[in-house]
What we know:
Elements lengths: L6 H15 L4 E4 L19 H22 L7 E8 L10 H22 L5 E8 L13 H11 L8 H12 L10 E4 L9
Parallel strand pairs: 1-2, 2-3, 3-4
Helix pairs in contact: 1-2, 2-3
Amino acid sequence: PCDVSKDEDLDAVFDKLKEDFGQIDFVIHAVAFADREYLKLGNFHKTTREAWNQALEISAYSLLAMGQRAKDMMPNGGSIVAMSYYGGEKVVPGYNIMGVAKAALEHTTKYLAYDLGEGENKVRVNTISGGPLRTLAASAVGGITDMFEHQERKAAQKRNITGEEVGGTAVYLVSDLSSGVTGENIHVDAGFSIVGL
């Protein structure tokens, strides 16, 4: 287990990776957390400082912390991919503090991509903004059923997405096929994010 809010836990994970593999080619950041109490419709204005800090530390700062450790294990370049959601760009009722955390994650991606793109390592950093998926984590979000229905109604392809589609995009981003792509937030949402109304 790794608590990403503890430097010693992150150090232990990356030390173990170094011991077992020496170097790595990619990191997938699929870490997010917000207190369920603040993922209810109409509750954003009730978010406490503690809940705010916890959500941003676990969901966004952890990407920076992982990048700090991963870059030295990627001597031939590499790729860091983080998972985001449209709620980091627009208000999604019920997503609340997680939307703010995803916005921070997406901008952390850009700054980290800039810093890690320099020098010999040339590490690329991107996010994937997937549409809603039926996961245990999604079940904690207020109004999630409405989100699935809205996605299917409004997306350009009139459907929800699959985990395989997000996974396929991740494979592209960690491969050399995306060698010129960094600092980007790639939408995998069946065209939902391109529709204005």
